[in-house]
Every structure is written in structure tokens, then in C-alpha cells.
Design a protein that fits this description.
By secondary structure, this protein is of the alpha/beta class. It has 13 helices and 7 strands. It has a single domain, classed as P-loop containing nucleotide triphosphate hydrolases (Rossmann fold). It is 40% helix and 13% strand. The protein has a 7-stranded mixed beta sheet, sandwiched between helices. The chain starts with 10 loop residues before the first strand and ends with a helix. The structure holds adenosine-5'-diphosphate and magnesium ion. Adenosine-5'-diphosphate (ADP) binds next to helix 1 and helix 10.
């Protein structure tokens, strides 16, 4: 614990990709747990009505539990709904319940409907190093709320056929939100998930993504791993479910890269310039 620099202010990271099944939720909860194990204080906000991130963190999210729905649609505060995650010190979760499925429609008539989440985060007074927001597989009002609240977009890309398909739409939405609602917003991080080093396809996709995006792509890829996919059914991240597994180590390393990049401008870049 405590081995990595902490950011000067809370880094708000939106994990988005409107494709389902690419590893958004898996990445959100495992990166969050990794950052917490590295010594950071981290809040996961579950913005998917399925509540998969809440499940994976072992957080109760049956219909009566105070949830992010109450924050967005009613006037609850984040403090009313945030729960600590068992077994991982410094990790917290604002759960999603199935109510959230109606929020896209219910929010339409609400004042400042795009900035409900931003408002709630601004009012939250607990000290945090990171907030990770797990988005649903769509670009609707819930994802827009995340993009307005956040500064960094994290895009998990599954190493499969058509990996880049549909990304243009996400990137255009990021530009739109940046232009109209949130000038700080940018794509900071691309993470290759479900990487199978034995297949040619995976390395081809990785190469394509790296040539398309460049420095945003983390050096660490997340391997395809049964341990990663088993962990949620025990209400755990892979970090506590199987700490020594390749999946666990790769998320710790990805988190380390992210933490170090947060201080890139002050520490790492000048050194590299001298070398070059
Ligand atoms: P999304 O949130 O984008 O829909 P998920 O994170 O739920 O995607 O992942 C989709 C499925 O793939 C889940 O069943 C999950 O357990 C599995 N999965 C995700 N990452 C990995 C991985 N690295 N190795 C094996 N299975 C994975
Ligand atoms: Mg998900």
C-alpha cells in the first residue's frame, strides 16, 4: 500500500464503450480495487441499471437499497447511498438498482438533466483520489451524465473482430460533450482487454489499436482469464479472489500506469526529454 503517488485532486474517470461485453464493468471494479490496494481512496459509481459493478463489489443492490437512482432522479446525496466495500480498505461504491432503467426517461423533464451526477459529485465532501464511473452499454442520458461529470474517458477495447467498430460514435459524443458541456473532458486511457497472446488475431487488434490511438493505450494488456470472470459470482474482484493470478497482476500494473500518468507532466516527461 501507499507505493504510488496520489493525484493532487480527485481524478474522475468515465469507463465507457457503447458496446456491451467489452470489459467495462470488469475494468472498473478491478482497476478501482487495484488503485485502492496501491493506497488510494476510490469511489466506484455504478451507472448501469444491471448493477453488475455493485454485484462484483459485493454490494447489496436490491430494489429498496438507496442507490445512484435516488441521487440522479430524487434529491439524495452521494453520502446517502455510498457503501464501503468489504475486504478492500479505501474502496467505496454507489450502487445501481434496477430503478435506474427508468432514469433515462424520468430525467428528460428534470432541470439540468445532463449535470445531475456532476452536481452530486461536487457536493460530496469525502476526500477521494479517484472516482471510476461504470457506464451502461449505450450513449444515452446516463452516459452523458458521466461524461459531463468526468475529466478522463477510459475505453476498454476487447481484442476481437470489429474491436474498433462503433468507437467513432463514442469519440464524437466525447467531442460534443467537450465542446458544449465539459471542456476538461478527454480520452486519457485505452485498455486492451481479454487479450489472448496465443492468437494472431489478438496481436493484430492490439497493433491496430496502438497505431490508431498511440500514447493513450496502456502498455499493459489484460489477459483473457477464467479467474477474472469467476470473481464476480463471489462478490469479489480478482484482486481478493485470486491475488496472485495473471488477471490480478495485470490490473495492478494497469492501475500503476494510470497512477503514474496522472503525474506525468510534473515528473516523468522532463526526464524523457533529457534522454531524447
Ligand atoms: P461490459 O461491462 O462492457 O458489458 P463486462 O466487464 O461485464 O463487460 O465483461 C463481459 C464478460 O466478459 C463478463 O462475463 C466478464 O466476466 C468477462 N470478462 C471480462 N474481462 C475478462 C477477461 N479479461 N478474461 C475473461 N473474461 C472476462
Ligand atoms: Mg457492464
Amino acid at each position: 500500500r501507499g507505493s504510488l503517488p496520489r493525484p493532487d485532486e480527485t481524478r474522475i474517470m468515465v469507463v465507457a464503450n457503447q458496446k456491451g461485453g467489452v470489459g467495462k464493468t470488469t475494468t472498473t471494479v478491478n482497476l478501482a480495487a487495484s488503485l485502492a490496494l496501491h493506497g488510494a481512496r476510490v469511489l466506484v459509481i455504478d451507472l448501469d441499471p444491471q448493477g453488475n459493478a455493485s454485484t462484483a463489489l459485493g454490494i447489496d443492490h436490491h430494489a429498496k437499497v438507496p442507490s445512484i437512482y435516488d441521487v440522479l432522479v430524487e434529491n439524495s446525496t452521494l453520502s446517502d447511498v455510498v457503501q464501503p466495500v468489504q475486504d478492500v480498505e479505501g474502496l467505496f461504491c454507489a450502487p445501481a438498482t434496477i430503478d435506474l432503467a427508468g432514469a433515462e426517461i424520468e430525467l428528460v423533464s428534470v432541470v439540468a438533466r445532463e449535470s445531475r451526477l456532476q452536481r452530486a459529485i461536487n457536493a460530496y465532501e469525502q476526500p477521494l483520489d479517484y472516482i471510476l464511473i461504470d457506464c451502461p452499454p449505450s450513449l444515452g442520458l446516463l452516459t452523458v451524465n458521466a461524461l459531463v461529470a468526468g475529466a478522463e474517458v477510459v475505453i476498454p477495447i476487447q481484442c476481437e473482430y470489429y474491436a474498433l467498430e462503433g468507437l467513432g460514435q463514442l469519440l464524437r459524443n466525447v467531442e460534443l460533450v467537450r465542446g458544449h458541456l465539459n471542456p476538461r473532458l478527454h480520452v486519457s486511457t485505452i485498455l486492451l482487454t481479454m487479450y489472448d497472446g496465443r492468437t494472431r488475431l489478438a496481436s493484430q487488434v492490439a497493433e491496430e489499436v496502438r497505431s490508431h490511438f498511440g500514447t493513450e493505450v496502456l502498455r499493459t494488456n489484460i489477459p483473457r482469464s477464467v479467474r477474472i470472470s469467476e470473481a464476480p459470482s463471489y462478490g469479489q474482484t480478482v484482486l481478493t479472489y485470486d491475488p496472485g493470478s495473471s488477471g490480478s497482476l495485470s490490473y495492478l500494473e494497469a492501475a500503476r500506469e494510470i497512477a503514474l500518468r496522472g503525474v506525468t507532466s510534473q515528473h516523468v516527461l522532463p526526464q524523457q526529454e533529457q534522454r531524447g
